[in-house]
Design goal:
heterodimer, A: about 110 residues, mainly beta, seven-stranded mixed beta sheet, four-stranded antiparallel beta sheet, 11 strands, globular, B: about 120 residues, 12 strands, about 50% strand
Chain lengths: ~110, ~120
């Protein structure tokens, strides 16, 4: 079975902190994605990556950056956390044109 | 304009009844794929079923089937013989060939199965 692991289920940080969300997949998928999920808004794509060291902006990249130094790991970085970044963050991975497989999500609260 | 529209924010259905969750989509790309995902209260997103735009038959996976009506741009999920464990949020999503591998999600339908 595909395993996508997010480093934390719950995380509480303070405004202005630099926050790292880690995602690891074990299926050698080329593609990796970061979404945020908010009530009434569904899932919105923040960033995605097709290969190591490659990244593309999604629909809402402002305030975020990403890093993909190894194929299995895709990190989401909040450079200076703000309260409007309190959300559920979901990581996903896939082979090209195949369904995405998701991690369990990280509920991030910024105080 | 929304690419994926799920018009039912919430539904209540009696256990063992069939359920239809609505999804309409908007694209001018002739090549696209449609997905349904389930999200239980625990938060993980579970892939349920996939339909390609050129597939001649409606996709089926166990109790799940996708009622694909291409001319109407409709891709409704049908769950037969609903179970209490089907209570969850359900998302319809689309991937367009000209958008690489990005997927656009609808806002979801929350399904409650009543005992």
């Amino acid at each position: 079975d595909v395993k996508v692991t997010q480093s934390s289920r719950y995380l509480v940080k303070r405004t202005g902190e630099k926050v790292f969300l880690e995602c690891v997949q074990d299926m050698d998928h080329e593609n990796m994605f970061w979404y945020r999920q908010d009530p009434g808004l569904g899932l919105r794509l923040i960033y995605f990556s097709y290969d190591v060291k490659m990244k593309e902006k999604g629909d809402i990249p402002e305030g975020y950056s990403v890093s993909r130094e190894k194929k299995e790991r895709f990190s989401l970085i909040l450079e200076s956390a703000s309260t409007n970044q309190t959300s559920m963050y979901l990581c996903a991975s896939s082979f090209v044109i195949q369904p995405q497989h998701f991690g369990d999500g990280t509920r991030l609260s910024i105080l | 304009a929304q690419k994926i529209t799920q018009t039912q924010p919430g539904m209540f259905v009696q256990e063992k009844e069939a359920v239809t969750l609505d999804c309409t989509y908007d694209t001018s790309d002739p090549s696209y794929g449609l997905f349904w995902y389930k999200q239980p209260s625990s938060g993980e997103m579970i892939f349920l079923i996939y339909q390609g735009s050129y597939d001649q038959q409606n996709a089926t996976e166990g109790r799940y089937s996708l009622n694909f009506q291409k001319a109407r741009k409709s891709a409704n999920l049908v769950i037969s013989a609903s179970q209490l464990g089907d209570s969850a949020m359900y998302f319809c999503a689309m991937r367009e060939a000209n958008r690489d591998d990005k997927i656009i999600f609808g806002k979801g339908t929350r399904l409650h199965i009543l005992p």
